[in-house]
Amino acid sequence: MRDANAAWKEGIPAVVLVHEPFAVLARAQCTALGAKDPVMLVYPQDAPARESEEDSVAKARRVATEIVKLLSTP
Question: How many CA atoms lie within 13 A of 7 on its CB side?
Fold first, then answer.
């Protein structure tokens, strides 16, 4: 969060990645840091030990695609 906030202050696009259980805390932290409109991607918490490699790769690809979309939006 702090790295993204520092990037935003310098005009550098950044996305905060947050697992669902921590979304409320992440938004509170962004507010506390003064981020006016934080770009945040909230996604399900990983459980690699319980997933097949194919499922983990598919999830990572979906998250990467979402990051690209968020960074591409003006």
Answer: 13
Whole-structure pTM value: 0.78
Terminal C-alpha separation, the chain:
20
pLDDT 10s per residue in the chain (74 long)? 889 989 988 989 999 999 999 999 999 999 999 888 889 999 887 777 788 889 888 988 999 999 999 999 77
Q: Are 55 and 25 in contact (CB under 8 A)?
A: no
Strand 40-43, strand 16-19: pairing: parallel
